[in-house]
Amino acid sequence: MEIENITLTQNPVLMKFKLFGFLCCIYLFSAVIAFSQTARKTVVSISTDKFLINEKLTYAGQIWNGHTIEGLLMNSRMVQGIFDDLNPETVSNWKYPDTKKWDSDRNTDEFVANMPIWKSYGLLSFTINLQGGSPFGYSQGQPWINSPYTSEGELKPEYFKRLEKILDKADEIGMVPIVGLFYFGQDDHLANEKAVVNAVSNAVDWILEKGYTNVLIEVNNECNVRYDHEILQPERVHELIELVKSKQKDGRRLLVSTSYGGGTIPKENVVQASDFMLLHGNGVSDPDEIVKMVEKTRNVASYKPMPILFNEDDHFNFDQPKNNFTAAVSAYASWGYFDYRMKDEGFEEGYQSVPVDWGINSERKKGFFELLKEITGY
User: According to the 3-state scheme, what is the secondary structure of 60-125?
Assistant: First the structure.
């Protein structure tokens, strides 16, 4: 018996089957691409007062001078990682000594190149602020314009393209960035409170949509220092903390807090709303006072067991047995190094002064990283 040769064009059932298979392949291919874009390697979480990365306690089993380091999150203030200056009258202040011009992409690329080196010393975290920090270390006026938001709180793509490079690298190598959303002196580029809320929503949505699971949020750097908008000030900043907590993607949200100026103990509203506490040691020259700050924070009425981090402290003395770093460790608090280029110092000094040399090549930087390596056992 002869079997009739039937083509697809002559058999609509076969045509539909073929088309269905083709569409399934397209769907699966698209799903694989989407998964590859959002699948992440690093997950940060908190268990009572301890940090975990990928469900393992940080610095697991490490003890230094009788103090447990397990669960801490040592960090450094690296807030200028996506810095730019949109004011043509001030941008020349940040020119590199070799090229005599400012280059925001070079700044980010050199930041990323140094991240594995920092990690090799035991640095698991760094603070990066979307509005940077003072490129002079400290300053009164801020004529430069460094903000990733429009006046209405929409995102500027060029800033977030640079941020993506940093967050991708952090995820790849197992680091936990503390992403700050606002810096005093730059928040005034947002038109009103609605724009501030819009900026928070847009930035947090962007981080969640990108699938990052290694990011902590600091709503604003030092909420009690010179913010124009009331919602960024101590009495109301908890509203923005709650806003961050309310944003979810696939059942997950970002862990969030905010910080105060040096020596200040967080207020009850912020302690109640936060997932962890951020303290600053600026102006606190006596290491014993660092211990007292931790104790006072734990005694705030609304405190429940949660991690306590110093993520800004410009005191050094790393060659001395007692300094602010070791004092924080003795009180079971994480500590963060803050360094800037002081008067008449060279390009290699500091991590906040722009342009930044992101290497470990000054005596202060070396002192911090060597002590960090000793304490963390890396």
Answer: CCCEECCEECCCCCCEEECCCCCCCCCCCCCHHHHCCCCCCCCCHHHHHHHHHHHHHHHHHCCCCE
- Token readout for 217 is 């949020």
Angle at 191 between CA 186 and CA 196, to 5 degrees: 70
Pair of tokens at residue 2: 């002869």
Q: Is the pLDDT of residue 177 over 80?
A: yes
- Structurally, at CATH architecture level, domain 49-376 sits in Alpha-Beta Barrel (3.20)
Distance in angstroms (rounded) separating the CA atoms of residues 161 and 374: 35
Q: What is the mean pLDDT of residues 210-225?
A: 98
Domain boundaries, the chain: 49-376
CB atoms within 10 A of CB 151: 12
pLDDT over threshold 80, residue 64:
yes
Residue 217 pairs with which residues in a beta bridge? 179, 256
The pTM assigned to this predicted structure is 0.90
Average pLDDT value for residue range 80-102: 98
